[in-house]
Structure formats: structure tokens, C-alpha cells
Design goal:
This protein has four helices and eight strands, in the order αββββααββαββ. By secondary structure, it is α+β, with helices and mostly antiparallel strands.
């Protein structure tokens, strides 16, 4: 996988979090995930198509999700992701990041488009068939000062 593709996800995500959370998360150690593919309790997948095809899976736990949604809602405290509004906000966060990444690619004359995000709770490997067909799953952890981690799984076969 081209490292510049992974870098686009790092840049796009950091840009969004800098705006939403007033913090640019630090980059954790990037690693390859192996099959069987596993995800965090909360995951949002976004398909990519165009110049290349793949899937991006954003992984977080519910506590981190509540934190990010609270930041998106300008400090309104969210304590659960069970209601429609926080669910929608988590999906929109993935959509915003993916849109930023698509814009970065467009600036490099790589035209891609994104599919609508799919939010999943307690997903299993069967929910991600593309991940099951490849061994090229790059995990990019973004680490926040408060201990929250937002993982980005880049799946481009």
C-alpha cells in the first residue's frame, strides 16, 4: 500500500480533530492488522471508490465516542451513544474525515469518492468482507491527551 495514502488519512483526521476538539492528536505506532479482523465496540465504515477502491473503518470505544460527540456539540455532555443524535454525530464525524481525505487526494489529482458511513456496534468480522479478503489492513492510531484513541483502519486491497 502506498504510504502517501495512509498519510492522507493522518492529515485529514488530524485536521478535523484540530477543528472539533481544539487538539491535534498524536500519531501512535502504525501497524498491520491480521485476520481474523477485529474492530472496537464502535466502528464506522466508509467505502471508497474511484482511482482506487477500498474501505476505511474508524474504531473507537463508547467513552471516546461520547467525548467526540460532546466536542462536536460544543460542550453539551453526551453520556451514551444509544440515542439517534449521538449515533448520527459519530457517523458524521467519519463522513467529515473521509471528505477531508478525499479533498487531499483531489489535490494530488487522485479522484476518489466516498460511500455513506455505516455505524456498527459490536461488529464481527463478517460485517467487513473486504477486510477478510486481504492481509493489507493498516491501522493508524490517533492518541489524545485525555487517553482516548481513535483508530483508522485503511483497507485497500
Amino acid at each position: 500500500m502506498d504510504a502517501s495514502y495512509v498519510n492522507a488519512f493522518v492529515q485529514g483526521s488530524q485536521r478535523v480533530f484540530s477543528s472539533i476538539c481544539a487538539e491535534t492528536p498524536s500519531l501512535g505506532k502504525i501497524f498491520l492488522k491480521k485476520n481474523p479482523y477485529t474492530v472496537s465496540p464502535v466502528s464506522v465504515s466508509v467505502g471508497i471508490f474511484g482511482a482506487f477502491e477500498g474501505e476505511i473503518v474508524y474504531n473507537l470505544d463508547e467513552r471516546a465516542g461520547c467525548f467526540f460527540v460532546s466536542q462536536m456539540m460544543q460542550g453539551f455532555i453526551v453520556t451514551s451513544l444509544s440515542d439517534d443524535m449521538p449515533k448520527s454525530a459519530v457517523s458524521e464525524l467519519a463522513n467529515i474525515i473521509s471528505g477531508n481525505v478525499a479533498t487531499i487526494f483531489a489535490g494530488r489529482e487522485i479522484v476518489v469518492d466516498i460511500k455513506p458511513p455505516q455505524l456498527r456496534f459490536d461488529a464481527t468480522a463478517t460485517d467487513f468482507p473486504l477486510a477478510q479478503r486481504t492481509s493489507k489492513i493498516v491501522c493508524v492510531p490517533l492518541c489524545f491527551k485525555n487517553g482516548h484513541v481513535f483508530e483508522i483502519d485503511v483497507i485497500i486491497p
